[in-house]
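Forum > Structural Biology > Help requests

Title: Can anyone predict the 3D structure of Sialate O-acetylesterase?

Hi all, first post here. I have the sequence for Sialate O-acetylesterase but no way to get a structure on my laptop. I'd be grateful if someone could post the structure tokens.
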Amino acid sequence: MKTALLLWIGLIAAAKAKVVLPPILASDMVLQQQTEVAIWGWADPTEKITVTASWENRVVSVTGAADATWKIRLRTPKSGGPYSIAIKGNNTVLLTNILIGEVWVCSGQSNMALTAAGGVKDARAELPTAYNPNIRLFRMGRRAAATPQDNVGGNWAVCDSVSLKRFSAVGYFFGKKLQTTLGVPIGLIDMSWGGSKMDTWLPESLVNLYPETRHSGRTMVKTPWAPNIPGVLYNGMVAPITSFAIAGVIWYQGESNRHYAPAYAQLTRLLVESWRSVWQNDFPFYSVQLAPYRYGGTFETALIRENQAKAMAIPKTGMIVTTDLVDNLDDIHPVYKKEVGNRLANWALAETYQQRIDPYKSPQYRSMLIAGNRIRLMFDHAPNGLMAKTEPITEFEIAGADRVFRKAQARIDQHTVEVWADGVEKPLAVRFAFRDAPEPNLFSQEGLPVIPFRTDNWALGLDRQGND
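Reply #1:
Sure, ran it for you. Structure tokens for Sialate O-acetylesterase below:
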């Protein structure tokens, strides 16, 4: 009888659920420094869970909820490590080799997702010397879902030639510069999906909030390589990690939103504000303007770029320009990403970490003055003036009342540019690099390309048709 009772007790104990953690919480991870981080998972309802972090001398306990979930919060110290975390319930989970530092999400579509294995030449050149124990990489599994999920696949790894080979090249170069400059551990989360539309990274309810964004969500082009239903990547990939504390987001996306470019600025604002809301963190958001590529369209790409620039009006955002970082205008994936990552890192170093970085902002059109048959253009973020890397200055067009743009001549006068064209006696508007695949040669004296722009707001023929 005693033997049978002991066997029954043993079976009951074995049947108890084990403490389980999501993959984002694992050995080799980086936790955000000097903040409150969440540790969470699943266990038996009413099971007592204790959590002990090696950087503090206390035990935190919690009881599992009725839905088998649990969560506690820990205060992290200044950057350092390695540390460990022990989680005990019916079983014990020990997380080791944990670093405390700065954690960034790297998100978007294929130009963010592109890796050394996928053809990025400067990332491939990094592989032999890639080992850096102070950089940790989390490569998230791709998942689309109809409803918000609480888990997503992926794994943390120390940066080396194996883990870097299939990790975002832009994200890696961004993180490498941060780590080298700040001297703290860096954690990078590669949350990207080639061909993805911004609409899919937002909650569906927000996409449907405004007529323009609703039209974008309903007219997404169907492709075999990425979902085209609003909200599904937010549900499958964003929602599961919103309890994981981060420093900020870098974003490279937009090619797949050319189907309805006028909505892009509003979608960006919704994305930034909604992600900040669910993370409960007003984190910085730095993006990459689309690189030149021969799409064969009219003004769709130019309007995406224009909307990307407009989105810089959102607080704590920034945008880098890549018109000079393309080796082949017939390849939508420029194969060099180091300078892209470095320019993003410069924004973060200057704006987020208050480092003295000069320059990091591209010159941006501010205003114009019409004088006879010429227009003079004024710019911000060109403290030492402008320069043309070759002659003549390219990519300027000018138009009068007929709204017909003609190729223009241009002349730099220190901080301003004077533009004119034969046959345009009374000019009204100027456009610069306002097309799919521009090849501009106008830069700040510090070497950053001028942001493409137009001075007019004339219709481009891309307004939506029908009612939504």
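The chain has a mean pLDDT of 94. Residues 198 and 420 are 38 Å apart (CA to CA).
Shout if anything looks off.
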